[in-house]
TrEMBL record:
It comes from Sediminibacterium ginsengisoli. InterPro entries: Bact_polysacc_biosynth/exp (IPR050445). The keyword Nucleus does not apply. This is Chain length determinant protein. The lineage of its organism: Bacteria, Pseudomonadati, Bacteroidota, Chitinophagia, Chitinophagales. The chain crosses the membrane at residues 37-55, 329-354. Residues 228-255 form a coiled coil.
Length: 364
């Protein structure tokens, strides 16, 4: 007689979870019984914590907070009304301001070209070394580069140099990349406010504060020059025309005065002196009118430039001594001890769960 096949009943899920929980709890209790092993692991972790304390270099954080005020927005109504009285469209004079508006200033401060330009400024007023030289020395990179077979020379980044070699440019790119990825932070403190905070964290205290302040100045100069470039060119062009017309008008003024004097001494029977005086007076009037219009346009452009120029006001500047970033010895030792104990406890628990108490004890 054929026996019926056994029926596989589904395992109770609640019972399975309870069983797994009890097994895990039992394994954890067994792992805690190895107190000597856990203590030795903690001692080893503490030693590694001490090594980490002495190995990790000290860094310094320079922090600058500032606010960008675009004066064009507050004075645009007044300027438009003033320009309208002279029949001018201020929008055509000033142009758009979207290139460097809003949060674009955040990306401007993280621009590779501006960071590179900042690094190539003199370290101080009396030094022939640049900030890039100080940076490479503080990180010990110059010695590594000199010993590298591909470089095999002492690399220098003298400030004021127009161009550098391929090796220097490549190493500068490495410095810029390291700063962007690890050491520079530019954030908006509050999305509703205009306050921006910039931080630079480096191994040299003076380097950190100098880089942070100069990067802000470099970005500010570029920001203002870009915002007012069109107006500056208009002002230079109008100023050149005004100077030229002023010289010509002065000559016409003397010429008209001479013609008037000759007219007083001339014989009334001759009309030539009167014609000469009339032509001189007319030329003077025409040039005077043109000169007045150019001066009017020049002043409007100067006023528009003032309104267009943004103001970057530093709220909190970085000051020495800077914030020192160094893990305390107690935190390093304690953190290493407890981290090593915790990892060892997890490993022991996992062994007891997967291999059982007897097998795990034999392996240990």
């Amino acid at each position: 007689m054929q026996q019926p096949e056994p029926i596989n009943l589904p395992e109770d899920e609640a019972y399975s979870l309870q069983s797994d929980g009890l097994q895990l709890l039992s394994a954890a209790k067994q792992a805690l019984s190895f107190r000597k092993l856990l203590f030795l692991a903690g001692i080893l972790g503490a030693v590694l914590g001490v090594a980490y304390y002495f190995w990790k270099p000290v860094t310094y954080t320079a922090r600058i907070s500032f606010v960008v005020e675009d004066t064009k927005a507050s004075g645009s109504g007044l300027m438009s009304a003033l320009a309208g009285q002279f029949g001018l469209d201020l929008g055509n004079i000033t142009g758009g301001s979207g290139i460097l508006s809003g949060d674009n200033i955040l990306e401007l401060l993280k621009s590779r070209s501006l960071i590179k330009k900042t690094l190539l400024t003199p370290a101080d007023s009396t030094s022939s070394r640049s900030l890039a030289d100080v940076y490479a020395d503080s990180y010990g990179w110059k010695k590594k580069w000199e010993q590298n077979s591909k470089v095999n020379k002492l690399v220098q980044f003298p400030p004021g140099k127009e161009s550098y070699g391929r090796i220097e440019d490549s190493l500068l790119q490495r410095i810029v990349k390291n700063i962007l990825e690890k050491e520079l932070s530019v954030v908006k403190i509050d999305r509703k406010l205009s306050f921006i905070e910039m931080q630079s964290t480096m191994r040299d205290e003076q380097l950190s504060i100098s880089f942070c302040q100069r990067l802000l100045k470099t970005a500010t100069d570029f920001y203002i020059e870009t915002k007012t470039r069109r107006l500056t060119k208009n002002i230079q062009r109008l100023q050149a025309k005004a100077d030229s017309l002023e010289r010509s008008l002065n000559k016409k003024t003397y010429s008209a005065a001479d013609a008037s004097r000759l007219l007083l001494d001339a014989n009334p029977a001759y009309a030539a002196p009167e014609v000469t005086a009339e032509i001189s007076s007319r030329d003077k009037y025409v040039q005077s009118t043109i000169y007045g219009e150019i001066i009017k346009n020049l002043e409007i452009n100067k006023t528009a430039q003032i309104q267009e120029t943004p103001t970057i006001q530093v709220v909190d500047n970085a000051e020495i001594p800077l914030k020192k970033n160094k893990t305390s010895a107690l935190a390093a030792v304690g953190g290493g001890f407890f981290l090593a104990v915790f990892i060892t406890f997890l490993l022991l628990t996992a062994r007891f769960v997967f291999f059982g108490s007897n097998a795990a004890s034999r392996k240990l």
